[in-house]
Q: What sequence folds into this?
């Protein structure tokens, strides 16, 4: 039975079912879209982005950026902290021997740290490619007073609400209304200027920055998975360089001891920063592959920010890109819709799970490849949620609902069938006994009827047992007769019902002299076995009524045919309505009529019972070959 | 009308060699020079008929679908139904020991356009030859126990009315009923079968029909 139910899911029955199945899917879609608009997916989308960025295959080492790290060992060797100006000055002088193109000192120098301040002032004055840092966002840290403003960049990063950094701030206005550039941008600009690549305003978006031909698309408050983020200043998404060793890092001691290859420095950008764990110059980034998951040295993140600018300009490496908001929601709706469609189109339930899982994996893989090769950050989590909910969870509900419904239907069917069997069999016999006139009521006449009754009642159980077989296509009217095969053409089955019923022992069959019968092929394209069974029962019941009530009938007319686009089953007699029966048309009200009316409704036809003149009854059921449709009024009536 | 012609073509279908031989021998004796072919299975019969249509088909009801399979009444019924649908002008004689099984096909037999007779296998060969003769004349014969009392179709009643109450000839009846004259003749043979009126030498079949129809109350 279970297979039957499942098949019904794919079978697309009536409109009501469509509503039933479409509504939950659309609701899910609506909820997913709403949740994303409200920012409920933001955290998950961030994590998906981080994960995807981290999973990318390693990119080659970026030779253009060298990091000189002052780590815990260096500080121990220096012996004091903050690092004195003397140390910084010596470091710069050492670097100068190797002729770097640009040097950024990622160490705050807003006030003098003696000894050696004067030495530092002189050194910096002699080396025009040295840049210093400031912090512009609150709490602000002033720039080194000994550097002109154009040789200072800010080191600020803007963290997301979960504390992780995914954006790079390129420029912003401070509280006094002055515009500041970031260290990364300053160093990149200085480095590229040597190759005649200059910083200017964007072409597509004049508010954006442009390095040569590469426009640095501004981050918006709702870019990608973000909802209502702080998009102040000029920001870009941070497309960190993948791999465990994106940059070459040398320690302060190695540099001072000369343990480096001069080509590492010559004509490159050198970033000097503190990497000592005790100084806490660390930031959170889950996108960078790091020893301490989530923790990255500030100077390394600066290197990523510089590297992404240089790579974009010189190597054509994409910055992170996002779709317009509308496209993102269209994408989510499309996949949610795909989930709904898959549910209905897949013919076999066994193929269902693999197809959904493969499609889901395909979505994940596709999104990853887009990010990896194209830098496209497209919505993954909400799309996957909409798709799996519609493709995997809702069908479960449908199935449950369907099973429940069909179980209820099944029970109703058994009840109906049982009652039909009792009504058309033993109750008819009983009616005969009760209708005998008083003077006929002899034991000799009644006894055989009681035997019949006994047999008929016992037969019902066997018959129900047989008919309740799932694929039963048989109908037995009477256990003494051959069961009818409902798969034969309808008019043949009906004819068999007619012959079998007329053999039964009803008082008014005996007087019939002429049977005018016409059984011709009927047009029944969508008739189920259940409908056929009901039609047989209808004919049986109509004939039984003639046998019971049509006193003195001499002619029985039975017509089963299809004409003028209508199927017709009609039973007509010319008997006198029995005195006991009411004169009004529903000679036999109750169950029989109910059955017939139900059947007529189901077939969208009509059931009629009427008197014919001069005497007799006519009982007919007619139903259209094509069920009436809304546009029927356009067609000429036949 | 397919009156017996010098080269009557007959196809006999039966899976029992002995019965087949007996039937063929009797037919050869009756219709000298007839072209008689035989088939042993439903498949073979259908194939043979597809090649060329004979004047008459004599078939057993209990036959196998293919050689090697067991003979079943149902197979014969299915074959008969499809043949009547495909060849409404084929004269048919059905030989069977269980005539009751044919009740199912009554609706299609009633609409069959050509001769159709049923020969009970339990009766002598002479009876069979009579049924063959009737079928070749386009007549209808069904045994009484295949019918539920007197059973007629509305069209047949119309023919009786027009013929015996208005005294019309077949041509006029056909015009009035808007059918071909040939169809009217078929209606006659069907109603005659329903009334148990069959050809008898020295008797006028139309008058016999009228007498019987009045007896049964089909006409006033």
A:
């Amino acid at each position: 039975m279970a297979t039957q139910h499942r098949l019904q899911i794919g079978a697309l029955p009536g409109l009501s079912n469509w509503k039933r199945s479409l509504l939950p899917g659309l609701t899910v879609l609506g909820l997913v879209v709403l949740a994303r608009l409200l920012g409920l997916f933001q955290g998950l989308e961030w994590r998906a982005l981080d994960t995807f960025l981290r999973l990318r295959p390693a990119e080659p080492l970026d030779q253009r950026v060298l990091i000189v790290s002052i780590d815990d060992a260096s500080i121990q060797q220096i012996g004091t902290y903050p690092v004195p100006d003397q140390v910084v000055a010596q470091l710069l002088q050492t670097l100068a021997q190797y002729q770097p193109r640009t040097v950024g000192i990622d160490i705050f120098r807003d006030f003098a740290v003696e000894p050696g301040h004067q030495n530092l002032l002189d050194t910096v004055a002699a080396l025009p490619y040295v840049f210093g840092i400031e912090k512009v966002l609150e709490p602000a840290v002033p720039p080194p007073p000994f550097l002109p403003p154009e040789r200072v960049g800010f080191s600020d990063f803007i963290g997301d609400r979960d504390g992780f950094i995914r954006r790079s701030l390129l420029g912003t206005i401070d509280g006094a209304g002055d515009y500041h550039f970031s260290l990364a941008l300053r160093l990149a600009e200085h480095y590229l200027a040597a190759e005649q690549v200059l910083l200017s305003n964007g072409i597509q978006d004049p508010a954006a920055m442009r390095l040569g031909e590469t426009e640095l698309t501004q981050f918006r408050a709702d870019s990608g998975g973000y909802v209502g983020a702080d998009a102040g200043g000029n920001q870009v998404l941070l497309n960190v360089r993948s791999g465990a060793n994106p940059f070459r890092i040398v320690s302060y001691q190695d540099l001072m001891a000369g343990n480096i290859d001069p080509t590492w420095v010559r004509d490159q950008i050198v970033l000097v920063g503190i990497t000592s764990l005790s100084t806490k110059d660390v930031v959170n980034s889950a996108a960078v592959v790091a020893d301490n998951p989530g923790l990255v040295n500030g100077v390394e993140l600066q290197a990523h920010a510089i590297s992404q600018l240089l790579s974009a300009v010189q190597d054509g490496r994409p910055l992170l890109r996002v779709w317009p908001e509308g496209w993102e929601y269209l994408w989510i709706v499309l996949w949610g819709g795909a989930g709904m469609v898959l549910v209905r189109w897949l013919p076999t339930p066994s193929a269902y799970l693999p197809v959904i899982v493969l499609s889901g994996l395909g979505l994940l893989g596709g999104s990853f490849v887009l990010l990896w090769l194209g830098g496209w950050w497209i919505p993954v989590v909400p799309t996957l949620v909409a798709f799996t909910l519609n493709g995997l969870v809702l069908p479960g509900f449908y199935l449950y609902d369907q099973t429940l419904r069909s179980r209820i239907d099944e029970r109703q069917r058994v009840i109906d069938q049982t009652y039909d069997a009792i009504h058309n069999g033993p109750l008819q016999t009983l009616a005969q006994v009760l209708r005998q006139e008083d003077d006929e009521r002899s034991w000799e006449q009644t006894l055989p009827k009681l035997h019949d009754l006994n047999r008929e009642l016992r037969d019902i159980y066997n018959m129900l047992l047989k008919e309740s077989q799932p694929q039963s296509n048989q109908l037995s009217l009477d256990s003494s007769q051959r069961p009818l095969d409902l798969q034969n053409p309808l008019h043949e089955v009906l004819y068999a019902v007619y012959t079998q019923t007329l053999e039964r022992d009803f008082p008014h069959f005996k007087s019939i002299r002429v049977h005018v019968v016409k059984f011709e092929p009927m047009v029944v394209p969508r008739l189920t076995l259940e409908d056929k069974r009901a039609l047989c029962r209808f004919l049986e019941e109509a004939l039984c009524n003639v046998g019971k009530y049509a006193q003195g009938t001499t002619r029985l007319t039975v017509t089963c045919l299809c004409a003028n686009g209508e199927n017709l089953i009609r039973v007509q007699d010319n008997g006198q309505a029995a005195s006991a029966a009411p004169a009004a048309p529903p000679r036999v009200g109750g169950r029989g009529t109910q059955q017939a009316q139900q059947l007529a409704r189901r077939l969208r036809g009509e059931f009629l019972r009427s008197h014919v003149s001069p005497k007799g009854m006519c009982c007919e059921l007619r139903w259209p070959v094509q069920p009436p449709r809304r546009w029927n009024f356009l067609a000429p009536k036949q | 009308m397919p009156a017996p012609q010098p080269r009557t073509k007959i196809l006999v279908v039966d899976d029992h060699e002995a019965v087949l031989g007996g039937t063929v021998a009797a037919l050869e004796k009756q219709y000298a020079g007839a072209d008689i072919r035989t088939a042993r299975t439903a498949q073979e019969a259908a194939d043979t008929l597809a090649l060329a249509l004979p004047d008459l088909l004599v078939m057993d009801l209990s036959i196998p679908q293919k050689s090697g399979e067991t003979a079943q009444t149902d197979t014969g019924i299915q074959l008969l139904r499809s043949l009547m649908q495909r060849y409404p002008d084929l004269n048919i004689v059905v030989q069977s020991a269980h005539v009751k099984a044919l009740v199912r096909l009554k609706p299609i037999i009633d609409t069959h356009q050509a001769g159709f007779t049923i020969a009970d296998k339990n009766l002598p060969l002479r009876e069979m030859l009579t049924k063959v003769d009737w079928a070749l004349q386009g007549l209808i014969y069904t045994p009484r126990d295949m019918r539920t009392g007197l059973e007629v179709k509305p069209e047949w009643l119309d023919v009786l009315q027009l013929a015996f109450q208005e005294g019309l000839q077949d041509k006029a009846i056909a015009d009035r009923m808007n059918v071909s004259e040939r169809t009217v003749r078929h209606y006659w043979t069907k109603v005659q079968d329903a009334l148990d009126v069959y050809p008898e030498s020295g008797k006028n079949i139309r008058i016999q029909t009228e007498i019987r129809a009045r007896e049964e109350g089909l006409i006033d």
